[in-house]
Amino acid sequence: MKHLTLLLIFTLSIFTNALTAQSVGERYNNFVNEAELSIADGNYKEALAKYNQAYTETGIEFAIDLYNVAVCANKEKNKDQFFLFAERLADKGVGTKLFERKVFEDYSGSRAFLKIKQKAEKVRQKNFKANRQYLSDLDEFRKKDSVYNKLRLTKYRESWVLPDTLEVLFRNNTINLFNYIKKNGYYSEKKLGVAITLDNGLDDFKLPSDVFLHYLEMGKDKSLKNEIKEMYISGMKRGEIKPCFLTHYIEMGNRVFNDIGNYAFKIFECEIYRLREIPRLDKINKNREMYLQGSLYDYEKKLVFAYCCNNDFEFHYSIISSPVSKEDYFYTASDIVGKVKDCSMK
Q1: CATH homologous superfamily, domain 22-128
Q2: In what order do the strands lie in the sheet with 334-339?
Q3: What is the DSSP letter of 340?
Q4: Which one, of 257, 314, 267, 320, lies nearest residue 288 by Cα?
Q5: DSSP 8-state symbol, 277
Q6: d(Cα 268, Cα 324) in Å, to the nearest integer?
Q7: Is 0.70 topped by the overall pTM?
Q8: pLDDT digit string (tens) for 185-200?
């Protein structure tokens, strides 16, 4: 009986650990979240430590994070760390232009830095060439979707229901793209070897993310929509997809995803407002945790840093533009949390 009890306790312990164990993507994202909050506080040394933990303990690296940690090392005047992360950033296929930003001008005369720039461009061109057919195939799905979407927005703009033929073409194109990715792999940075999480990643091709977004917004096949959702969640947990780049998909996915509360933030007359009372805040934060989005408090801090501070970092957190109605109510129900530095950013 004693042995049976111990066996049951041991089995229960394994089961509980399995339920609570974090995926590699979750662990990476937690470290990066802490690093970005440290950057927002101006604590670059602490951010460096958190980024190092992220890379060491998970083996995951995204170009945008390598860029931010290189900037941290530069601001700390830690040349060894700067060259270490600049070298790894070059391996991500970022190209030369990234290293010509003003934040790196102190290294412009360095022979070692010149070699890193040359390597960055060489890697980028090599990986583009290796993936040209794959990217070309993906672009065909995007082009077809653009044609269907244009018809929706022009010829059938006033229609409540799309013609069956257009609906079938829309669905089949999405399914074909989904199956192509299942067979050939998701277009992650790791697969492409090109820095798609930075603005200068892809010049010649456009990735087909809008195909999936359009289907999440307007598609009728619930099973397909759930498969797309699962693809994104699994990709985040494997560390292939940056959670912040899915924010708009989650927000605009026509209730395929749970509510993450980003509607609480608006930009109005060059200021960021936050809704004072957020319904079901605990539930929203649990949803955000499920999608690796960080708490609303952390999100606010990053939004303010991205929009309101002159900085050299890449913080791709944004507010989906939406009109303000009933201005009197809006003013009484919201608090100003930051003044936007550049109103064109909205």
Answers
A1: Tetratricopeptide repeat domain (1.25.40.10)
A2: 265-268, 271-275, 334-339
A3: -
A4: 257
A5: S
A6: 8
A7: yes
A8: 999 999 999 888 886 5
Find tokens 């992220």 and name the residue.
Answer: 54
Give the number of residues written for the chain. Answer: 346
Here the tokens at position 123 are 């890697």
pLDDT for 199 equals: 63
CA distance linking residue 271 with residue 336, whole number of Å: 7
pLDDT tens sequence across 279-317: 999 999 999 999 999 999 999 999 999 999 988 999 999
DSSP codes, 45-68: HHHHHHHHHHHHHH----HHHHHH
What pLDDT, on a 0 to 100 scale, did the predictor assign at position 159? 75
Q: Which residue has the tokens 């090392």?
A: 73
Nearest to 271 by CA among 322, 305, 220, 308: 308
Return the CA Rg of the chain. Answer: 22
User: Cα(179)–Cα(176) distance, rounded to whole angstroms?
Assistant: 5
| pLDDT at res. 204 | 62
Cβ neighbour number for residue 110 with a 10 Å cutoff:
14
86-91 mean pLDDT: 96
Instruction: Say yes or no to pLDDT of 94 above 70.
Output: yes
Q: Strand, coil or helix: what is 271?
A: strand
pLDDT class for 8, splitting at 50, 70, 90? very low
pLDDT computed for residue 10 by the predictor:
45
Nearest to 284 by CA among 315, 248, 252, 260: 260
Closest to 266 measured CA to CA, from 254, 249, 282, 278: 278
